[in-house]
Model the fold of this input.
Amino acid sequence: MDMNEIKEIFFQECEEQLAELESGLLKLNDGDRDPETVNAVFRAVHSIKGGAGAFGLDDLVSFAHVFETTLDCVRSNRLEPNQDVLKVMLKSADVLADLTNAARDGGSVDGARSRQLIKELEALANGELPQPAAEAPAKSAPAPAKAAPAAIPAPAVNEEGFQPVAFSFEDFETSEPPTIEPSTFEILFRPKSELYGKGNDATLLLRDLSRLGEMSIHCDMDELPALGSMNPEAAYFAWKISLKTDKGEEAIRSVFEFAEWDCELEVTLAGGNHAGAGDELPMQPVPFDLSLLDEAMPALAGAAEDDEQVAARQREARDEAVSAASIASNVLQMAQTARASAENARSAAPASAAQAAAQQAAASAATPTIRVDLDRVDRLINLVGELVINQAMLSQSVIENDTNGTSSINMGLEELQQLTREIQDSVMAIRAQPVKPVFQRMSRIVREIADMTGKSVRLVTEGENTEVDKTVIDKLAEPLTHMIRNAVDHGLETPEKRVAAGKNPEGTVRLTAKHRSGRIVIELADDGAGINREKVRQKAIDNDLIAADANLSDEEIDNLIFHAGFSTADKISDISGRGVGMDVVKRSIQALGGRINIQSKPGQGSVFTMSLPLTLAVLDGMVVTVASQTLVVPLTAIVETLQPEASAIHSFGASQRLISIRNSFCPLVDVGRILNFRATQANPVEGVALLVESEGGGQRALMVDAIQGQRQVVIKSLEANYTHVPGIAAATILGDGRVALILDVDAIVAASRGQSLPEMSLAAAG
Amino acid sequence: MKKRVLTVDDSRTIRNMLLVTLNNAGFETIQAEDGVEGLEVLETANPDVIVTDINMPRLDGFGFIEGVRRNDRYRAIPILVLTTESDAEKKNRARQAGATGWIVKPFDPTKLIDAIERVTA
Done:
């Protein structure tokens, strides 16, 4: 994994954190005062800031920092998250999202807006604080430029111009430049027992110290009692160190950065002239250099002979020194272990209580998840699709060869079929995602449009956890956005008008998702004025959509808004008048295999209902025969099937025919004729009529030759594998291995209204 | 032998950065997403050093450090706190909870490795 991949992960995580942030803020807005909600909101911003800092995204960091500071005020109960405060915070969340997007895609952000919000956030943080948060304004100033890269551009600087970088000081928070002249420091280091208790180790500190220069060391063991009276919890050793270094006192102190509270530390300058003079110490110094333990003993250090024996003695002496050191460290370890058991006895009760609390916390946490590449899931889904087809083929050939249907192979196949179906459902469930992210995005849309239109709007969402295929979710955002804009812009009245109508000045937009008979139903309801039918009708007449004297039901008038290029607003506003009409919304929903309709009550508002398939991968279909071709009709489109009787068929005009069903007439559509499978219309009495519901609620009876059965089919895109065929939605492979086309019922119905489908290709049917 | 580092951080980004940095520096890395998981993982991980974040769901860094220090078997393990907070108050709280040292974010690989080297043998 490289940094770019991690950056990609960072932006993914940002998206999740932003969603978390927004949902948390909305909860607070609804009066939720759970500290965990505030914490989650804080953490989201904090996390974004942390990652952004690592990637040097300065704009993002500085905004997140101010936001975080204000949120910290809320977290510590210094700022009450009332509606006004939350309004600023929700806007800040939007800006944070913009900044994140800009950081990812390189776009620009509304600098004025973010500066304004920084001011507002700071005002909130300062206004309620006992002492003004001095830190916030200081750090929040827009970063002047990206942090300069560590390396100085090569061409500009020659060798003499090169500035040495004291890299070993990078982790020390000091600005003091290292002294150039080496000087000798006397250091007294006396650890307290807490030093060991926090996992620090005197040996390691001494090691680090030795790296600063030339060091001699003496261990003061005066306080070490007899073993019998030794307290394993205590620290008995102290060290007197003489260190000759050119790094300065600050460097010495920073070695003890983590330990300074838990030890006595004295650092005094002995004077540069006495460099290396160990004998100035009151006690005999031991030269200490971990990397060169050969000089462990002063006597041996002085020995200049390279006599073999001396060398051997040196090694022996070193071994002794090492073993002495290891004994010392053993004592330390013993001390720690003994203290541990003592402490353990003391803290046993609270520890187990804490463990219980931890377990409880674990139990209440979300179920564990793993992240999987979408490609892998899709591959699995494809394979399962193949498996389903294969299983169906196997079943079919067994049935053909086993007419009585009682053999064990037949029974096994039934179980296989059931298993396959379960596997398929489970795999589909992997792709299923809650609609929550899309719904959450809508609340921002509502806020923005409410601001632009000066309307007061409340968005209520229900069923956010309703799950649907990820593809459906991804493609839902755009039509939904447009509908929400419409609902606020056209649906809701201005606060004044609402008050005049005796309504709450704040309008409500309700977004609901639920499962209904194998589909997801999304409803968007507003409590606005409802469709102005007079106006819609007039507009339709003006636009030549309908005849001036057309006799339309209320429902039909309402559905006119789905016609291309229709806009009811007198003046095309900036919000919903971007040339995108409800017809586009309708088309996107249809492209997902969905339906949309509207119900409106004057003065009470409108409800848009969208019904979408849960998945785009499989479909329950009715397998039918038309002119010896096998076709699949989506089951969801079919209302009922019937065998027409001759008396029920009525001719109408040149070629139109109607069928009378329970005293109402319904146009009869010969699928074979529409698809150009045959040149003349078939005799309805010889076939079967499928009563289907099309957009706008109108019914048609589709004539097919025969029904073969009903089954779940795996959808194979025609566009991806061949080309778009009018009147055909997709293809599938049947149990016998043949390709069957899936009928696009709406296209067939539309075609039946007038012209036949253009450029039909029979070759596609296999 | 490779030194083993247990990292505890709720941010996937930071987790990945830690993983890459530590692996590149020749450490063996074990990761947990929050304090609760950290304490669970500790039981089997047997790390030489722990690096933990402060702000985490379920159990924050302070609680996690206290949990480690309360545990007989693991309380001598050095713990480094990795946090954007550079203010003395946070450091102090972490120290009181039993942190060995700290690394101030923004994340810097050199700082991280330096700090780990400082507290491990």
User: Anything to note?
Assistant: The mean pLDDT of chain A is 75.
